[in-house]
Amino acid sequence: MAQYLFKYSIRRFITYARKKLEMIQIAESEEINKNENDELISIDDVEKLEREDLERVCLSLAAEMACKVCLTKKINTVFVPCRHQCCCSDCAKRLELCPICRTRLKSAFRVFS
């Protein structure tokens, strides 16, 4: 499930990035954009805003894929019986309860993506 959500997020991000790139190309061809107050803004300002949006999306995707226990390694373990995929294999070895739902764990499986 998490892999599907990650792939969906990546597809959504790529679509978002393509739309933003098209907007930048249109702005470059016109050389000047006007905002809601009819004030002139430069192409550099538009590009800076686009980069900030892309950086924010990248950071949120990285946070989604980080282990919820140590926050450093990539998520690669699924728990049984609750099927939550929320931590790395190192942290999973030390847990008795799922960090999400607090269900007692019977086993944990490593997943590859």
UniProtKB/TrEMBL annotation:
It comes from the Eukaryota. SUPFAM superfamilies: RING/U-box. InterPro entries: RING-FYVE_E3_ubiquitin-ligase, Znf_RING, Znf_RING/FYVE/PHD. The keyword Zinc applies. Keywords: Metal-binding, Zinc, Zinc-finger. GO terms for molecular function: zinc ion binding. Residues 67-102 form the RING-type domain. PANTHER family: CASPASE REGULATOR, RING FINGER DOMAIN-CONTAINING (PTHR14879), RING-TYPE DOMAIN-CONTAINING PROTEIN (PTHR14879:SF5). This is RING-type domain-containing protein.
